[in-house]
Each structure stands twice: as C-alpha cells, then as structure tokens.
Amino acid sequence: MSATARGATSRGATAEEDRLDQLRRGASTDDARRAAVELLIATGLVREEHPWVLHDSGTWWIDFDRATEAVDALTVEHEKWGLTPSLLSVLEMAASLADGLTVHLRHVLPELDDEHTSLVMAAIAEAAGHPDAEPPQA
C-alpha cells in the first residue's frame, strides 16, 4: 500500500496532521485565536463532522461564527454531537477567545471537568500573551 493510500501526504505527514497544521496556521498571527484553536484541538473539538470545522480546496479552518451559533444550538442537543456539558463549555470559551462571544463565567466554569478547566486556563494565559504561565503553587 502506498503512503498516500495509508493517509500520508506528499510531505510525509498524515492527513490528520496536515489538517491540524492548517488549522493552526489559520490562527497563527493572533494569540487569542491561536489559543482557541489549540484548545479545540486539545479537547478533540476539531473533527471533520463538526459544523465549525470547514474545508475548501485543500484548506481547513475554524469558522468561529459557526462555533458561536453552535453553542446556542447545541445547548439543547449537545448529546447528538457527543458533547458533554464540559465540552460544550470548552467550545463556548474557545468562541469567546477567538471572536468575542460573551460568556457568563458563572454559568460556564462549573460545567468544566478538571482536565478541561486546566486546558481552558492554559488557553486564557496564551491568549493574554503568557503561554508559559504556571499556576500559583499552594
């Protein structure tokens, strides 16, 4: 079986790696968008079937307007997409970082599980220009 048939691109990267690289490049010039994209990647919210992940002529990108619309629509039917309340909160936070969606932290934060809380906090630090920030030690 050829490398291309196994899902590798001509540069040796898999189709998945190429897609993730394109998503990252699309947000590389803006700290907040880059943080939002990395948050979505880290939580698995960049699957091809997600309505906010778009593809055209070999290019992949995140449509944060669609992500914002999806937050409202998926609040009722998030199970259809396999989104837990925690993942829905992650999507809402990413849309806020990237496009300024108003988020009511009092409602969003309690829905985050431990892992997603850490990822959201790291994304906020990156969006603020502090990608290497460490949480204070108790």
UniProtKB/TrEMBL annotation:
Residues 14-27 have a biased composition (Basic and acidic residues). Residues 1-13 have a biased composition (Low complexity). It comes from the Bacteria. Residues 1-27 are annotated as: Disordered. This is Uncharacterized protein. It comes from Rathayibacter caricis DSM 15933.
